[in-house]
Amino acid sequence: MNSSTILARSTVRQLIELGIEDVVLSPGSRNTPLSIAFYQAEQKGLVRLHVRIDERGAAFFALGISKVTGNYVPVVCTSGTAVANYYPAVLEAYHSANKLLLLTADRPERLRRTGSNQTTIQKNIFGEFVRQSVDTAIPIDLEQLLSGSGPVHINLQFDEPLLPEDSSDWLSGIKHKEVAKKAPKKYELQATTKRNVLIVGHDRAGFEVGEIERLASDLAAVLIVEDPLRFKTAIAHAPILLSDERVREELAPDLAVIIGRTTLSRATNAFIKFAKRTVVIDPRAKVIDSARSADEILSSIPTVQGRVEADKPWIEKWSNYEQYAKESVANYPEWSEGSLAAQVAEDLEEDVALFISSSRPIRDVEAFAKPRADVITFANRGLAGIDGNISTAMGIATHFGETYAILGDLAFLHDVSALSNLTGDPLTIIVVDNDGGGIFSTLPQKDVEGFEKIFGTPHGINLAKVVSGFGVSNEIVTSAKELKIALRRIYPGLHVIIAKMPSRRENGVMILSCIGAFRKRLFS
Question: Domains in the chain, please, with CATH?
Answer without folding.
Answer: 3-157 (3.40.50.970), 188-329 (3.40.50.1220), 331-519 (3.40.50.970)
